What we know:
By secondary structure, the protein is mainly alpha-helical. It has helices at residues 2-40, 85-109, 113-120, 123-141, 153-181, 196-222, 231-258, 266-288, 292-336. The chain is elongated, with a radius of gyration of 54 Å.
Amino acid sequence: xxxxxxxxxxxxxxxxxxxxxxxxxxxxxxxxxxxxxxxxxxxxxxxxxxxxxxxxxxxxxxxxxxxxxxxxxxxxxxxxxxxxxxxxxxxxxxxxxxxxxxxxxxxxxxxxxxxxxxxxxxxxxxxxxxxxxxxxxxxxxxxxxxxxxxxxxxxxxxxxxxxxxxxxxxxxxxxxxxxxxxxxxxxxxxxxxxxxxxxxxxxxxxxxxxxxxxxxxxxxxxxxxxxxxxxxxxxxxxxxxxxxxxxxxxxxxxxxxxxxxxxxxxxxxxxxxxxxxxxxxxxxxxxxxxxxxxxxxxxxxxxxxxxxxxxxxxxxxxxxxxxxxxxxxxxxxxxxx
Length: 337
């Protein structure tokens, strides 16, 4: 038995090798058959011609290609040397931005000049009409009996109310005159300063118009002027006059400070109405049975302010001639240059 077992062990390896060989052979046959099948199933070759289509006309929905053409500076550099190309492009955009902004600002700041001219044309009639309505109509057409109720505070307040209405119209008139006298181009400055001699003469005339009534009032209160005039009748006669004179001083100081071109017209406007005030005071003095010296003093003030008004009109004529000469000088200098 032992010999048979040994003999079987000795014979076993050849049988295993034969089995493995047959299996490997079968696998090789299968692979070859598969390869033959794949080689036999060959498709015919299809030759495809790739043609290129060139079209220069874009469809409506396609955007135009953006091209960037850099500028070459004097040194031959296309772009400035920066750490990033976007910084270079940004710097060029910032250089172009001020030019466009300046053009837009110039367009917005320089509107059509005719538009402002059309707005100024009605002021040439509206301003004098306001001055006439607020100053002359109440004084000339309003009955004095409806305003003057006697030598009392009510009459004084009524007269001051009339003068306040005139002052409102005079202020609007001066504002319109200032607007019309300004240049059409807002970029041009219009600073008009009165000469020192004009200021001195104007202040002397105004202070004289204050001092004369105050001196007469002081003389009446001291008993120098007889008969005496009480304070309430004196305030009714000359109170509105002195109040409006102080308003004129304030207005002239403001026009001098702002260097407005209406500084030459302001005294003429107030002094013309002042003559109406004093003529009204003469009528009221007759109704109040004022002393003779008081009526003479009012007549003297009327004469004084007529003289001052004449001097103001002479100064207006002189400044008009001066402006014409200066304009002629500038035109001749421009043509000669």
